[in-house]
Amino acid sequence: xxxxxxxxxxxxxxxxxxxxxxxxxxxxxxxxxxxxxxxxxxxxxxxxxxxxxxxxxxxxxxxxxxxxxxxxxxxxxxxxxxxxxxxxxxxxxxxxxxxxxxxxxxxxxxxxxxxxxxxxxxxxxxxxxxxxxxxxxxxxxxxxxxxxxxxxxxxxxxxxxxxxxxxxxxxxxxxxxxxxxxxxxxxxxxxxxxxxxxxxxxxxxxxxxxxxxxxxxxxxxxxxxxxxxxxxxxxxxxxxxxxxxxxxxxxxxxxxxxxxxxxxxxxxxxxxxxxxxxxxxxxxxxxxxxxxxxxxxxxxxxxxxxxxxxxxxxxxxxxxxxxxxxxxxxxxxxxx
Length: 336
Prior knowledge:
It contains twelve helices and twelve strands. By secondary structure, it is α/β, with parallel strands linked by helices.
């Protein structure tokens, strides 16, 4: 197979950002005073979302921020910093002061960023997990006017018109969706025309507007549009069907044996954040996630609740780096 190179747009901006930030975790940095975890937080907390507003990560962050704000009686602000396949927002938190007041809505991009030939941060060295909040299937959807109702019909259309069927990548070039679509193209035997986006919100708008034919997106970002008939769901990428869209088959059921992609989203903090603060934030985030109203809201959107201990995030990042490295080697894809 010819080796394919996935170009990483926006890395210059990432390095410019990293260079302009105080590297609190580096040698010679000013020590961070350990705040009494029982008094935390005593000022506003920021959650940085490394993708554009409107997608599943943004919905999760704003739900958690609202519930935490109510619990803490303190402002929890969501700030979107999209770009470079999430590397801009991820690097901003990786180099932030490790005092518990800057958190990251983290996910699969951490492990994929680690495999780039050039990078502005190291996810294993510069970030620490708080909780894996949810897991998600990815969902293949098309605009209704494309005229296909099943994955088999979509695959046949792609084979008849190789390189013509446009497919949005909400996570951008080098994202989990990009890798999943490369695997999908390989199994179909023909290529789609992939278009990168800085998040699920803008990607969805172009598919809904009829400007793009299809999209692979985190299921929770598309549930409402599928239920209303604005998008046609063809298949989920997990080995199990989603309770939120139980009539949508898996790609394995559609004939792609052993095909399985599952994503996750959660919270991370800068490395060096005191363990007492990590434990306090984890305890409170897990509590709000498990509140019946919050859990019902998230599950109705299509998220599967995880609400794990902090170490589960770090273990997942490390395991996924190894997994994605093997997949990239097998497909001939390289991240730059």
